[in-house]
Amino acid sequence: MDFQDIIRQLVERIEKMKDNVLTEEATKNAFIMPFINALGYDVFNPTEVVPEFICDIGTKKGEKIDYAIMQDGKPVILIECKHCLQDLSLHDNQLLRYFTVSPAKFGVLTNGIIYRFYTDLEKENVMDEKPFLEVNLLELRDTQIEELRKFHKSYFDVDNIMNTASELKYTNELKRLIASEMSNPTPEFVKFFARQVYSGQMKERAMEQFTGLMKRAASQWKNDIINERLKAALNNDVQVSTTSTAEKSEPEAEHCEDSDNGIVTTAEELQGYYIVKSILAQKVSLNRVVGRDTKSYFGVLLDDNNRKPICRLWFNRSNKYVGTFDAEKNETRHLINSLDEIYTLAEPICAAVDYYEGTTNGGE
């Protein structure tokens, strides 16, 4: 089984068991030992993994850390564990102290769900206060799996990891700073951009105005990015194209035109479309559920057939509606205040599919 599949299986295990893991020892047994095993190390082989590894610190003898991963008889990774519901903090933490007296180049602080990886980028043999890599297994991204793969027994190479650790650490720090500035811009950040578009003095009133403008601009920019990514992801799924003359003659549904004709598929429409697909996941093959945008609404069809409308998303207005269909294809519009409310319409959405599946001639 591929490393990625093994990690995904572990994630599923955590999701199912996390509410029943009540102690630190249970966290080790249920989550952390399987994680170490996923990295290719035999947790029951003391030449590879030593539990309760002894790290003598000065006059203190017999100090122990939860696990040490060994290579050629020496520790290369130190792991300190907490209970899965416990916050991770390095203050007065054993890992900081053990790292200094150990030949290990990497320290890991974990509660079985979040893994923080540390090294000594800032001062040799002194562990950095901030991790160069943090992975939350319940919010796992593919790029993070590739970073975890570097710690696998088969690929583990100190120099290789160190070469990317610095870039990872500072890139992540910059991302956090950018995210913070986007949501709550500091005066310095506001001034930096305002001075490039505004020639007046940045007095209190101007600062208030541009602080609000920065927040709105940042929000719109993020929405534009999400919209573009959703469109790209659904490029082979959602059909936004000029329809044939025969299809245009059908009275039951308006059809999509190309972007030159003014159709704009929004992020909300695509998100709503995905919710409809999730509702129908257990009923039909999802490749039979096709989305088509029009100037008035975003339509969801069965089998890409205009005679089989499942629902319509009327989102191009101040009030948002979802249109559902009965057996005679009469449309009923339901007012929604949030996209989550689409789930409350699961019954009529599924019923529409049942109507078409029960029609002997398929409605053609």
Gist of the model:
The protein is of the alpha+beta class.
Task: Write up what this structure looks like.
- By secondary structure, this protein is of the alpha+beta class.
- It folds into three domains: 3-175, Alpha-Beta Complex (tt1808, chain A); 184-233; 238-357, no CATH class.
- The protein contains ten helices and twelve strands.
- The protein has helices at 3-17, 24-38, 94-101, 142-149, 158-183, 187-194, 204-233, 245-248, 267-279, 346-357, and strands at residues 49-54, 64-71, 74-81, 106-110, 114-118, 133-136, 238-239, 289-293, 298-302, 309-314, 320-325, 331-336.
- A six-stranded mixed β-sheet has the order 1-2-3-4-5-6, with helices on both faces.
- A hairpin with a 2-residue loop joins strand 2 (64-71) and strand 3.
- Helix 1 (3-17) runs antiparallel to helix 2 (24-38) and helix 7 (204-233) packs across helix 9.
- The protein starts with a helix and ends in a 7-residue tail after the last helix.
- Mean pLDDT is 83; it is low at 239-259 and 360-364.
Binned strand content: 15-25%
Question: Spans with pLDDT under 50 lasting ≥5 residues?
Answer: 239-259, 360-364
N-to-C CA distance: 46 Å
> What kind of oligomer do you see?
single chain
> What's the CATH class label of the largest domain?
Alpha Beta
Q: What is the CATH architecture assignment of the largest domain?
A: Alpha-Beta Complex
Q: How many helix segments?
A: 10
Structural class: alpha+beta
Please give the radius of gyration in angstroms.
28 Å
Q: Would you count the extended β strands for me?
A: 12
Instruction: Kindly give the count of domains.
Output: 3
Helix content: 25-40%
How are the strands of the biggest sheet laid out side by side? 1-2-3-4-5-6
Question: What is the mean pLDDT?
Answer: 83
